[in-house]
Amino acid sequence: MKTYTIRYKKLLVEIICLLFILLFVYAACTKLMEYDKFQVQLGQSPILTSIGSWLVWTVPAAELVIAGMLVVSRLRLMALYAAFSLMTMFTAYIFIILTYSPFVPCSCGGILEKMGWEEHLVFNSVFVLLALTGILLLSRKQHDDVTRHSQQFIPHHN
Length: 158
Known about the structure:
The chain is an all-alpha fold. It has helices spanning 2-33, 35-44, 52-71, 76-100, 117-151.
């Protein structure tokens, strides 16, 4: 039964990482291919106007770096923390725009452009929860691996 649970958790982490890889690579490529449009959208933001020229490159770069880190198993926990942080920032931005901004700028590009801001908030929130789930599963696994590994070297006294 325990082996089944371990396999299930490992598969769940793999699926979460794959979903983030797909999301971040797609989002970054869309932003870079539609660079001018993305730059205009950032410029329209009532919150991000002053740093838009900086974000136009750093956001897709961060998405691609995180996606690359998710491919490497020993970097996955760090990558999930980064994905969690990035998605939390995106979600907070959408929440602030919806709650406090008198002007709601255009949405993201690509397929996600078809979503409204409320749907995008839910979508992002789901990915925040996925990242948190992956972090918890990987943190627990790494803790168990360290504990199991250290117990191999502890002499047993009877």
